[in-house]
């Protein structure tokens, strides 16, 4: 039912989710302190990713082989839906974050949050979302 490709995808998605949770905490107090909409655009992509990981968690319950008090999901319809939803949300979030970075770059440094010292964190957010795209595709 699960092969190595899907297990690697689950591990990579978990790493992306952990990085996303850290960035969701850091972004609003650094580079997105003057633009909460950009921080929200990043955080909204983590919801479908959490649902993807939850779906795979129940599907992998069959690998344990022991008794379980929860039903084992054998269908992949929900997983496919949540992966596609994550792909859509992450793509839109990357576009919104790129627009945010473009707007920040056109302003002088003294008008940016913290005088532009934490501008690089925005790039980490984009890289995290882009890394999540192929990782989630491994689950299909």
Write structural notes for this entry.
- With 140 residues, this protein is an all-alpha fold.
- The chain has one domain (4-60, 76-137).
- It has helices at residues 4-26, 36-44, 46-59, 61-64, 77-105, 120-137.
- The longest helix is centred in the middle third of the chain and has 29 residues, at 77-105.
Termini distance? 12 Å
Summarize the biggest pleated sheet. Answer: none
What is the mean pLDDT? Answer: 86
Helical stretch tally: 6
* Count of discrete domains: 1
Tell me the layout of helices and strands.
Elements: H1 4-26, H2 36-44, H3 46-59, H4 61-64, H5 77-105, H6 120-137
Note the main attributes of this structure.
single chain, 140 residues, 6 helices, elongated
Short recap of the structure:
This protein is an all-alpha fold and 140 residues long.
């Amino acid at each position: 039912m699960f092969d190595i490709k899907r297990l690697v995808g689950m591990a990579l998605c978990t790493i992306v989710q952990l990085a996303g949770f850290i960035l969701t905490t850091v972004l609003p107090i650094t580079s997105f302190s003057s633009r909460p909409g950009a921080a929200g655009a990043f955080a909204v992509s983590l919801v479908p990713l959490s649902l993807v990981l939850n779906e795979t968690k129940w599907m992998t319950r069959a690998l344990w082989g022991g008794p379980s008090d929860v039903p084992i999901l054998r269908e992949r319809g929900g997983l496919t839906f949540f992966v596609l939803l994550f792909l859509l949300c992450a793509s839109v979030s990357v576009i919104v974050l790129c627009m945010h970075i473009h707007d920040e770059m056109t302003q002088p440094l003294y008008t940016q949050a913290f005088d532009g010292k934490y501008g690089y964190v925005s790039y980490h957010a984009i890289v995290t979302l882009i890394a999540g795209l192929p990782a989630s595709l491994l689950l299909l």
